[in-house]
Design goal:
The chain has twelve helices and ten strands. By secondary structure, it is of the alpha/beta class. It folds into three domains: 54 residues; 197 residues, Rossmann fold (3-Layer(aba) Sandwich); 94 residues. The chain has a five-stranded parallel beta sheet, sandwiched between helices. Helix 11 runs antiparallel to helix 12.
Length: 352
């Protein structure tokens, strides 16, 4: 059984597909949006590979219990960090830089305290990044991804060669010259791990509208900022209204940051389920291809191990859920939720 996780799936796609086929991977975990994963990995040699979609990141559990400043106590009104990504990633990726530059002008004119940078030397990592987010009332953002999928690497090669000779060329000129047809034909657009961090730290998210992998809803979990900034007055009004801003950040905390589906534990459960479903199928196929007595005995031993592993997974999941009940569910409701959970676990263990 071979499993591969991939990121940066917008480039060298054909070479990646060839390597997956040659290495005989069984399961591919991709971070692209569900509706295009089969369009990106359309290759004949990948038809037998199971494709599973996962997130680019998850809620860091340690952030949920952090003591963070109240909204009005935060020293920065709007913060943001984003590097200017290569032009060959397309218009969608270019928005990461554009939103910061445009908002900086608007924010300064509106007398907001802004800490918005795109310089590589101004990037923040580790604890410095968490402290930064915790001290911002609001943070800008866009979906992660790219609107150009470079299957053979030729777009990147041509753009980089051209930019090396014309370092001050405008993005629109590069796009029109090298990838106007490819730009937007396949767009990778998914939620960024930054959104989970902001939700956990109760920092107001001001984002370009998008699907955000189905995890965020406009006006419920974030303030939508139209790409042409046509609703900027409405956005500024929320920033200046602590009660409205705090209502949104609290919903984001409760419904996004505290949602089990957005945790590392959920990712591990999805991984286990994928192996759980795929593993016996592969061994049954092998026995059919080589129906010797020894293979049949080997299959019997593997099935026995498989059943033991399946039961241990259920027991492990029970421990995680019981711990989550104590953390998330109000004390008054914990006994009833625990009894309901125990009934479910008893049935699952019997099935396992």
């Amino acid at each position: 059984m071979k499993v591969i996780f991939i990121q940066d799936e917008y480039r060298w796609i054909n070479e990646t597909a060839k390597a997956i086929e040659e290495c005989e991977f069984n399961i591919l975990f991709s971070v692209v949006n569900e509706e295009i994963v089969h369009k990106i990995y359309h290759h004949e040699g990948l038809k037998g590979v199971t494709k599973k979609v996962t997130l680019t990141g998850f809620v860091p559990k340690a952030l949920l219990s952090m003591n963070v400043p109240a909204y009005q106590e935060r020293r920065v009104d709007v913060g943001y960090r984003a590097r200017r990504v290569p032009a060959w990633l397309g218009s969608f990726a270019h928005e990461k830089w554009v939103i910061g530059q445009r908002f900086l002008e608007v924010g300064q004119a509106a007398n907001l305290v802004c800490d918005i940078e795109s310089d590589e030397q101004k990037r923040l990592y580790g604890r410095a990044w968490i402290n930064f987010l915790s001290n911002c009332k609001a943070v800008l953002g866009t979906e992660s991804g790219a609107s150009v999928c470079d299957f053979d690497g030729s777009i990147q090669e041509h753009v980089e060669a051209f930019e090396a000779q014309h370092p001050d060329v405008h993005f629109d000129q590069v796009r029109d010259r090298f990838f106007s047809q490819a730009d937007g034909a396949l767009t990778i657009s998914v939620i960024s791990p930054r959104c989970f961090e902001a939700a956990a730290l109760r920092t107001l998210m001001i984002l370009y509208p998008g699907k955000y992998s189905g995890r965020l809803k406009a006006w419920q979990h974030y303030v939508p900022l139209e790409r042409d900034f046509s609703n900027i007055k409405e956005v500024l009004a929320v920033i200046r209204d602590p009660s409205m801003a705090e209502a949104i950040t609290e919903r984001a905390y409760q419904e996004v940051a505290c949602n089990f589906d957005n945790t590392f534990e959920a990712m591990v459960a999805d991984f286990d389920a994928a192996i759980d479903a795929e593993w016996p199928l592969r061994h049954f196929q092998r026995v059919r291809q080589e129906p010797s007595l020894e293979n049949i005995r080997r299959l019997g031993r593997r099935i026995e191990t498989y059943l033991q592993v399946r039961q241990s997974l259920v027991l492990g999941a029970r421990r995680v859920v019981n711990s989550s009940i104590k953390t998330i569910v109000p004390k008054s409701a914990q006994p009833a939720v625990t009894r309901a959970a125990q009934s479910i676990w008893r049935r699952l263990i019997k099935v396992a």
